[in-house]
Amino acid sequence: MAPRSNRSSRKGQSEAVIPSLVHEAQVTTLINLAARLTGKAARIRMGRIGAWPGQIPLLLWLLEKDGLIQKDLVERAKMEQSTVAEHLDRLERAGFIYRKRGADDRRKYRFYLTDKARAASHELLDTLETGARMFTAGISKSDLAVFDRVIRKIIARLQDYARTAGSVAKRPRSLTQLRTRSGGRS
User: Fold this and answer.
1) Structural domain of residue 119, as residue ranges?
2) How confident is the model at residue 26 (pLDDT cuts 50, 70, 90)?
3) Same domain flag for 72 and 145
4) Cβ density class 10-40: b for 16+ within 10 Å, e for less
5) pLDDT tens profile 38-59
6) How far is Cα 105 from Cα 67, in angstroms, rounded to an integer?
């Protein structure tokens, strides 16, 4: 009988872990769903202006300080360099920005808003403000403050994980990988 009760206690332990895993998976699923729906809502709302949701941070940074270089926009928007380059190309084709070679360094381009972008900026800001109010309507300020604090902690942990896991992923995990990277010699 003792082994059976031992099994049931082990089974009870694993059953206790499963709800925790399901709950954690639900949190990440909900975050992912909220991000997708936020993007969809932004595409609908920004479509009137002719901008894409991913371009919004770049437009906002250029509204704050016109003439930034791409590297500055990458750092401020916290986006990948290739993504920023793609968004800048699209914004330029849409007539929202233009680029000009830097006077101090001819290898760098500075990005400036066009008159079209400046005219649309009021509608952009209004759309962002009303969207934020619309999507958070009925949620108390204290709940929003808790959400803000929690989501920032989750983001920080994800950034830490991506940073550390990214560096671990670059290291060889086996002797075979080490040989492959060193040209086949051990």
Assistant:
1) 50-137
2) confident
3) no
4) eeeeeeeeeeeeeeeeeeeeeeeeeeeeeee
5) 888 888 888 878 788 888 899 9
6) 13
Report how far residue 89's alpha carbon sits from residue 99's, in angstroms, rounded to the nearest whole number.
10
Task: Name the residue among 87, 65, 91, 89 with its Cα closest to residue 76.
Answer: 65
Other C-beta atoms closer than 10 Å to the C-beta of 66 total 14
The count of domains in the chain is: 3
Beta-carbon contacts of residue 94 (< 8 Å; ≥ 6 apart): 50, 51
pTM: 0.62
Helices (H), the chain: 2-47, 56-64, 70-77, 81-93, 115-136, 141-170, 175-181
> 185 pLDDT exceeds 80?
no
Write phi, then psi, for 179 (nearest 5 degrees): -65, -40
Span 137-149, average pLDDT: 95
